[in-house]
């Protein structure tokens, strides 16, 4: 713990595109969002850092999913170290700030707990990120036809169900075989030859 955890902007195939294709991004800039779930041990504090441009919007939503009291201390600080939000023993929260250039720090603090670890979910929604956000979506317009992977939940679900069924079958087979071996061993010990 105590190490800085940087949350970089997602990079989607930009390295494969020539810079000429990425110039001239204009118009609507989509929001970038990501979420993270982690376990925070008792007596510990974990901080994250998010780089932001000028006049963007940073929204942080968090919720304590598990742990005694379902509560956590939350701290959000500006790049200059000014406290923007400080909450104690809250189970959830949503906070939005208009940003300056720099790294925003947000921390989840469980130092008040001596026994209970907490499972924490948080989501970052970054709006008005300027060209960075637009460039990360522009790659999609250069992919056509069969190059675009169009996958539905049903396409993924069928193989998963088949694998789960196979695993369950193998588990039952293993339990049955183990029971047979134990039965043979029991009979071997009770009926010595």
Automatic annotation (TrEMBL):
Signal peptide: 1-27
One Pfam family recorded for the sequence: EMP24_GP25L
GO terms, biological process: protein transport
Domain GOLD intervals: 45-126
Annotated GO CC locations: endoplasmic reticulum membrane; endoplasmic reticulum-Golgi intermediate compartment membrane; Golgi apparatus
SUPFAM superfamilies the UniProt entry points to: Supernatant protein factor (SPF), C-terminal domain (SSF101576)
Key words, A-Z: Endoplasmic reticulum, Membrane, Protein transport, Signal, Transmembrane, Transmembrane helix, Transport
Main location: endoplasmic reticulum
Topological type in the membrane: Single-pass type I membrane protein
Entry keyword annotation includes Transmembrane: yes
Cellular location(s): Endoplasmic reticulum membrane; Endoplasmic reticulum-Golgi intermediate compartment membrane; Golgi apparatus, cis-Golgi network membrane; Membrane
Family from the record: Belongs to the EMP24/GP25L family.
Protein known as: Transmembrane p24 trafficking protein 5
Source species of the chain: Macaca nemestrina (Pig-tailed macaque)
Gene (UniProt): TMED5
């Amino acid at each position: 713990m105590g190490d800085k955890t940087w949350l970089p902007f997602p990079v989607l195939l930009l390295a494969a595109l020539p810079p000429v294709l990425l110039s001239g991004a204009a118009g609507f800039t989509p929001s970038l969002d990501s979420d993270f779930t982690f376990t925070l041990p008792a007596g510990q504090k974990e901080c994250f850092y998010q780089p932001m441009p000028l006049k963007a919007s940073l929204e942080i939503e968090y919720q304590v999913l598990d742990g005694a009291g379902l509560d956590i201390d939350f701290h959000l600080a500006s790049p200059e170290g000014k406290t923007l939000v400080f909450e104690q023993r809250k189970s959830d929260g949503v906070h939005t700030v208009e940003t300056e250039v720099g790294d925003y720090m947000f921390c989840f603090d469980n130092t008040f707990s001596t026994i209970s670890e907490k499972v924490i979910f948080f989501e970052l929604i970054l709006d008005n990120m300027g060209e960075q956000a637009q460039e990360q979506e522009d790659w999609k317009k250069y992919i056509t036809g069969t190059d675009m992977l169009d996958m539905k939940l049903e396409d993924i679900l069928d193989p998963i169900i088949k694998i789960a069924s196979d695993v369950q079958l193998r588990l039952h087979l293993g339990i049955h075989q183990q029971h047979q071996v134990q039965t043979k061993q029991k009979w071997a010990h009770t009926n010595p030859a």
